[in-house]
């Protein structure tokens, strides 16, 4: 399973990557320090290289999570078929949750730190190919 | 009988005979003459005896007598002849002789004095002759018929008239030359005349196709009570009858003419008697002419005696000149236009009913009286609007007299330069369409003065509804218009004396400004008159967008308000609110604009300060939000990491490399948490000090030196160059720590984000130390950033724009916070690959 983690915080990436690896050591995890870097890779990849799951932090320099979501909006349909996007943020701000209503292709929002239960739930959804909002 | 007796008797007879008895010898000597000779010839017989007869004879008769005597000498018969003797007293005495020659050659003769006979005979002859002449030469036809009805005599006129010979008439009945019907008429009258009656009748007959008419008289010639014949005298009256008929016809024709003329007509003879009245006169005077013809007019119309008609007619007759006059006839309540023509026969009078006309005229006169006395101007024009009449009021108003303007079109000479001709065209069209119109218009007097008039034009119509002309009434409203215009201006001024008022024409050129304008802007009317206000008032900082909006609105001719920066004459900038209202004329064209200017600098300043307060509040609020964000995101991020790592550690083998690594990361997270907490402390400190931090005179150069020395190591390490273009001794009143922080952050950023491609150069420059504040730029030639991507987040807390460089995203936030705390602000411009330039402004407090 291919997974993208987009986060400007090294510590947070270290944590997320190891938490995911504990659950499934076979995962193909790629990390990006800004939305722009991730987009570059996404647009360059063929269908097969599109990740099944993408974790996106909101607060980043250059292109933050919102900017990334805006850039992905035109691709909404293709993404929804192929890729589940999860927002992974340390923010507890409820305005972020409200703002996410504008991006229906986002599968869910997870507050940092990511926990084993979150990962398990995501994987089980992923396996059953069904999608629903995870909270 | 005895011979003696016989002789005696003979002697006696001779003596007493009234005739002369005498005897003459053969030689002509008188032998005997009776004594009667004395009575007849004046001579005694003795005076005559032995004298030759010729001594007593009229000399003219000598030859005749001698011849006669000789002639009958040879005949035995008695001869009678006549000759004339001269009386002793000289007069002629005719004597008729009977004589006989005897054998003794003696002529015995008896002579009778024929004086008496001769006299009566010659009288008779004369009368006969006279009659004859009268008869023959009478211009009338005369003929005589005997009892048998035969014509015994006919005069030459008859012969001539009938063109027959006398022989054809004499002893013929009248029927032989008269046409049968006339012959019968003649016969009938003849019989009556024979019975002793005189008769007169008209006789008409045709001769050679010509009808002749004769006035004929037949009368009997009576001798001794017995009608012996009948004389007829016929006077031809054909031409008379013809002329009479002609006269009658002409009279009839004249009468027809008189009857047919629509004028009423009558004639009066010399005695003022009606000789003719036509039916129109009958109608107008309400009379029946049969009762008036032949009657004296003044007896028939007693009320008119010595009245108007009476005077005029008498005047006409007296002078022999025609008269014309208008008069009222009370009898039938009419006004009459009368023309009377005197002639030899009397006077002919024509008259017309002009009651309507007179009434109309009286009406007009009344109106005209009103029109002429009114102070309003009144113009009466024909349908082509050409003047027929104007009143005195018109002359008073305009200065033009009727004689000058008759036949002209009023607008041609009353309108002038400023007259709204377009508006007039509109009303003119209405007017010519027969609509009554009223309008106000600027006219010009003859002397060129402006004259505002309220004009009312009413069409007048003929009987068929066609326009006859126009009646125009003008009222001088110059004062009203002037005062109204003044009032309009004044009212505007009065409404707010402090407000400036500009009145411009339709093109926007200033016509008038009030004192408020001068007070506000410093410009007087004479300075701005004829110019566009914008030329003087607008300046450098006037917003072009507002000006073009104003232009658009002016073009549209709508009311609008605009707020813009204007400049007073002194150059001082001020905010003005302009209310601009177009003024329309009656036909909807913009005539003027009125602009009311309000100096709203104070309001604008208040607004600005309000805006600033709002901005401050917003800033505080946004600080608050950022602070929340800081807490919720940046403070929580290391906490979350720490929590996650703590959790991860429980799942790891304590002896694994990952365990140690995770522990180290956990340590970092906690350090991070500490840093954030320190930041929060810094921020809160700045915030709390807002507006009441310690301020002192800070030398920018001194602060920069401190900054350079504290960053000396990294700056020198990267080979940086510092270019100082600050004014000598430039200082600001500020918090020294903040100023230090600002330049420290700038310089450390410059070092951190320097370009790898070139040596770092940092320039600091001041832009004058104005009365308002100090402007300083800080620029580097570093890597720069994408201003578009950075959006306006560059000065926000924890916003970072470089992934490859370490940074917390707090430096520029602090710069901004410090400056704002001191009442200043910061702006940035940057270009990737070229560098970044910060511009800070510190106010003078």
What would you say this structure looks like, in words?
Chain A: It comes from Pontibacter diazotrophicus. Chain A: This is Response regulator. Chain A: InterPro entries: CheY-like_superfamily, Sig_transdc_resp-reg_receiver, TCS_response_regulator. Chain A: The modification 4-aspartylphosphate is found at residue 57. Chain A: Keywords: Phosphoprotein. The complex is a heterodimer of chains A (135) and B (845). Chain A has 135 residues and is α/β, with parallel strands linked by helices. Chain A has one domain (2-128): Rossmann fold (3-Layer(aba) Sandwich). Chain A has six helices and five strands. Chain A has helices at residues 10-23, 35-44, 65-72, 76-82, 94-100, 116-128; strands at 2-6, 28-32, 53-56, 84-89, 106-111. Chain A has a five-stranded parallel β-sheet with strand order 2-1-3-4-5. In chain A, helix 1 links the parallel strand 1 (2-6) and strand 2. Chain A starts with a strand and ends in a 7-residue tail after the last helix. Chain B is an alpha+beta fold and 845 residues long. Chain B folds into seven domains: 3-120, PAS domain (Beta-Lactamase); 138-236, PAS domain (Beta-Lactamase, 2-Layer Sandwich), CATH 3.30.450.20; 242-353, Beta-Lactamase (2-Layer Sandwich), CATH 3.30.450; 358-476, Beta-Lactamase; 481-599, Beta-Lactamase, CATH 3.30.450.20; 600-689, Helix Hairpins (Orthogonal Bundle); 690-843, 2-Layer Sandwich (Heat Shock Protein 90), CATH 3.30.565.10. Helices cover 42% and strands 28% of the residues of chain B. In chain B, the strands form seven sheets. A five-stranded antiparallel β-sheet of chain B has the order 2-1-5-4-3. Chain B has a five-stranded antiparallel β-sheet with strand order 7-6-10-9-8, with helices on both faces. A five-stranded antiparallel β-sheet of chain B has the order 12-11-15-14-13, sandwiched between helices. In chain B, helix 23 (601-651) packs antiparallel against helix 24 and helix 24 (657-689) runs parallel beside helix 29 (811-821). The termini of chain B are far apart. The interface between A and B is medium-sized, with 28 and 32 residues.
């Amino acid at each position: 399973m291919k997974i993208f983690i987009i986060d400007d915080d090294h510590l947070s990436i270290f944590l997320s990557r190891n938490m995911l690896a504990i659950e499934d050591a076979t995962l193909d995890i790629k990390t990006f320090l800004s939305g722009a870097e991730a987009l570059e890779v996404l647009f360059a990849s063929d269908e097969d290289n599109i990740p099944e799951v993408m974790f996106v932090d909101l607060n980043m320099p250059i292109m933050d999570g919102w900017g990334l979501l805006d850039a992905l909006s035109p691709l909404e349909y293709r993404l929804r078929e192929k890729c589940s996007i999860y927002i992974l943020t340390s923010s507890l701000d409820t305005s972020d949750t409200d703002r996410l209503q504008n991006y229906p292709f986002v599968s869910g929002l997870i507050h940092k730190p990511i926990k084993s239960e979150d990962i398990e739930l995501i994987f089980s959804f992923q396996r059953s190919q069904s999608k629903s909002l995870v909270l | 009988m005895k011979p003696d007796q016989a002789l005696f008797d003979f002697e006696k007879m001779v003596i007493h005979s009234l005739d002369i008895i005498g005897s003459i010898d053969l030689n002509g000597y008188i032998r005997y003459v009776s004594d009667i000779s004395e009575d007849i010839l004046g001579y005694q017989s003795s005076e005559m005896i032995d004298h030759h007869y010729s001594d007593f004879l009229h000399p003219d008769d000598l030859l005749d007598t001698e011849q006669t005597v000789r002639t009958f000498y040879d005949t035995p018969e008695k001869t009678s002849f006549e000759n004339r003797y001269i009386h002793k007293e000289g007069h002629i005495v005719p004597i008729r002789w009977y004589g006989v020659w005897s054998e003794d050659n003696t002529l015995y003769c008896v002579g009778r004095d024929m004086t008496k006979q001769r006299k009566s005979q010659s009288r008779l002859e004369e009368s006969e002759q006279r009659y004859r002449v009268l008869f023959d030469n009478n211009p009338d036809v005369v003929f005589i018929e005997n009892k048998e009805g035969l014509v015994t005599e006919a005069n030459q006129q008859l012969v001539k008239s009938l063109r027959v010979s006398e022989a054809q008439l004499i002893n013929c009945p009248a029927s032989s030359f008269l046409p049968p019907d006339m012959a019968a008429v003649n016969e009938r009258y003849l019989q009556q005349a024979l019975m002793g009656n005189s008769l007169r009748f008209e006789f008409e007959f045709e001769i050679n196709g010509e009808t002749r008419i004769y006035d004929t008289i037949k009368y009997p010639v009576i001798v001794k009570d017995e009608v012996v014949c009948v004389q007829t005298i016929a006077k031809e009256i054909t031409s008379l009858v013809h002329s009479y008929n002609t006269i009658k016809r002409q009279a009839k024709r004249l009468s027809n003419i008189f009857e047919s003329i629509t004028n009423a007509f009558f004639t009066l003879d010399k005695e003022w008697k009606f000789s003719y009245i036509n039916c129109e006169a009958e109608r107008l005077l309400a009379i029946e002419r049969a009762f008036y013809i032949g009657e004296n007019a003044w007896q028939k119309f007693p009320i008119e005696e010595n009245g108007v008609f009476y005077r005029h007619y008498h005047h006409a007759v007296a002078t022999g000149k025609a008269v014309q006059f208008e008069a009222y006839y009370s009898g039938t309540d009419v006004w009459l236009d009368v023309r009377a023509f005197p002639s030899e026969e009397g006077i002919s009078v024509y008259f017309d009913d002009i009651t309507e006309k007179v009434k109309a005229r009286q009406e007009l006169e009344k109106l005209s009286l009103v029109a002429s006395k009114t102070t309003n101007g009144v113009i009466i024009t024909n349908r082509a609007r050409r003047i027929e009449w104007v009143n005195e009021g018109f002359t008073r108003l305009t200065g033009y007299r009727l004689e000058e303007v008759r036949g002209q079109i009023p607008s041609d000479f009353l309108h002038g330069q400023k007259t709204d001709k377009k508006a007039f065209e509109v009303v003119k069209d209405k007017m010519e369409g027969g609509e009554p119109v009223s309008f106000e218009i600027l006219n010009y007097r003859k002397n060129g003065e402006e004259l505002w008039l309220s004009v009312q034009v009413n069409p007048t119509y003929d009987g068929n509804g066609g326009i006859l002309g126009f009646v125009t009434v003008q009222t001088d409203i110059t004062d009203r218009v002037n005062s109204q215009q003044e009032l309009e201006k004044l009212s505007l001024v009065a409404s707010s004396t402090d407000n400036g008022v500009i009145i411009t024409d339709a093109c926007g050129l200033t016509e008038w400004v009030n004192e408020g304008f001068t007070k506000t802007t410093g410009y007087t009317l004479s300075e701005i008159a004829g110019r566009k206000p914008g030329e003087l008032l607008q300046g450098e900082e006037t917003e072009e967008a507002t000006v073009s909006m104003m232009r658009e609105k002016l073009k549209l001719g709508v009311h609008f308000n605009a707020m813009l920066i204007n400049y007073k004459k002194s150059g001082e900038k001020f905010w003005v609110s302009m209310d601009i209202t177009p003024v329309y004329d009656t036909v909807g064209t913009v005539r003027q604009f009125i602009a009311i200017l309000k100096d709203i600098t104070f309001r604008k300043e208040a607004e600005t300060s309000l805006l600033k307060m709002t901005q401050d509040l917003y800033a505080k609020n946004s600080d608050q939000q950022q602070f929340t964000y800081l807490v919720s995101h940046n403070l929580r991020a290391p906490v979350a990491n720490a929590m996650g790592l703590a959790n991860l550690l429980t799942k790891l083998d304590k002896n694994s490399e990952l365990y140690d690594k995770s522990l180290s990361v956990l340590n970092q997270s906690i350090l991070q948490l500490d840093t954030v907490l320190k930041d929060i402390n810094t921020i809160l400190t700045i915030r709390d000090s807002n507006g009441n931090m310690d301020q002192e005179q800070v030398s920018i150069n001194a602060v920069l030196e401190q900054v350079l020395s504290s960053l000396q190591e990294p700056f020198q390490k990267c080979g940086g160059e510092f270019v100082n273009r600050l004014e000598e001794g430039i200082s600001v009143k500020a918090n020294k720590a903040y100023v230090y922080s600002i330049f420290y952050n700038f310089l450390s950023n410059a070092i951190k984000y320097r370009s790898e491609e070139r040596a770092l150069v940092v320039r600091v420059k001041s832009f004058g130390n104005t009365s308002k504040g100090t402007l300083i730029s800080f620029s580097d030639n570093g890597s720069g950033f994408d201003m578009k991507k950075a959006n306006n987040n560059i000065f926000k807390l924890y916003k970072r724009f470089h992934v490859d460089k370490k940074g917390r995203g707090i430096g520029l936030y602090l710069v901004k916070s410090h400056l704002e705390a001191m009442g200043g602000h910061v702006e940035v411009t940057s270009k990737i690959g070229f560098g970044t330039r910060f511009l800070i402004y510190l106010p003078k407090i």
